[in-house]
Write a structure and sequence with these properties.
118 residues, mainly alpha, two-stranded antiparallel ribbon, 3 helices, 2 strands, 31% helix
Length: 118
């Protein structure tokens, strides 16, 4: 799926609600306060449903970052919501196809190591 790389789309909640009713063939002049109250409740329920399903990923991108010896940290783009997977791909002269997946490591995992400095 191609994206526009634009992140400034920010219509008002009122505009989105009116558009939703219009798509249901309910004209603006037919709306009542009950319609708007129901829309408010439905939007909250929708957001609750989304959050229960974890993060909603609109796009997933592969970002490659060359590693430099001695550099302990690297920045990520400001529009990144979540990092799904991180892996190291060997460079030239190393065994091809031997990617190393880097997994999250909790405090409990660290505390359970017999020699954590190894």
């Amino acid at each position: 799926m191609a994206t526009s790389d634009q992140y400034n789309f920010n219509p008002s909640l009122g505009s989105m609600t009116l558009l939703a009713f219009d798509r249901c063939q309910v004209k603006r002049t037919e709306l009542t306060s009950q319609h708007m109250s129901n829309a408010f409740l439905e939007l909250n329920l929708l957001q609750s449903d989304w959050s229960a399903d974890s993060i909603v990923w609109w796009t997933v991108e592969l970002v490659q970052q060359p590693l430099t010896a001695g550099q302990p940290t690297y920045g990520i783009p400001s529009n990144t919501v979540s990092v799904l997977d991180v892996f190291i791909t060997p460079g030239s002269g190393q065994a091809a196809g031997s990617n190393r997946l880097i997994l999250p490591f909790t405090r409990t995992d660290y505390a359970s190591l017999s020699n954590p400095t190894q």
